[in-house]
Amino acid sequence: MSRGWAQNPYLPYLWLKKGASAWVLLPAAISLALFAWLLTLHPTAAGRVYAAYGGVYVTIAIVWLWGVDGIQPHRWDLAGVVLMLAGMAVIMFAPR
Fold first, then answer.
1. DSSP-assigned letter for residue 95
2. Residue 8: is its pLDDT beyond 60?
3. H or E segment and range at residue 49
4. CA 52, CA 10: separation in Å to the nearest integer?
5. 56 lies in the same domain as 89
6. pTM of the entire structure?
7. Cα-Cα end-to-end distance for the chain
8. 64, 70, 74, 92: least CB-packed within 10 angstroms?
9. Domain containing 77: what range?
10. Distance (Å, whole) CA 91 – CA 52
């Protein structure tokens, strides 16, 4: 079943691969700029916050793959999630 472009959050993908109007790049650019600006407001070093975000993002992507796309993760997917979360924990919780 085909989804309409408005239901798909991957705006640059829609423009590049699905023929959507270039106007879909405007909300993508605004949300990216907003995200980068919000990172600078955090009292901790922005790189560490971004590392934590990355670990959570990869984990949620694999959960999405399983729960929404209906594709069971491979053991290597799960190993990658464990490595990402371990790396995130080292970066975020290391004594300073």
1. -
2. no
3. helix 46-67
4. 22
5. yes
6. 0.57
7. 51
8. 70
9. 43-96
10. 8
Higher-confidence position of 77 and 38: 77
| Whole-angstrom distance, CA of residue 94 vs CA of residue 13 | 37
Structure tokens at 88: 């995130």
Residue 36 near residue 27 (C-beta atoms within 8 A): no
| Same domain as 79, residue 67 | yes
Buried/exposed 54-89: b ≥16 CB within 10 Å, e otherwise: ebeebbeebeeeeeeeeeeeeeebeebbeebeeebe
Q: CA-to-CA distance for 38 and 62, rounded, in angstroms?
A: 25
Q: Percent of the chain beyond pLDDT 90?
A: 17
Cα–Cα dist 8/6, whole Å = 6
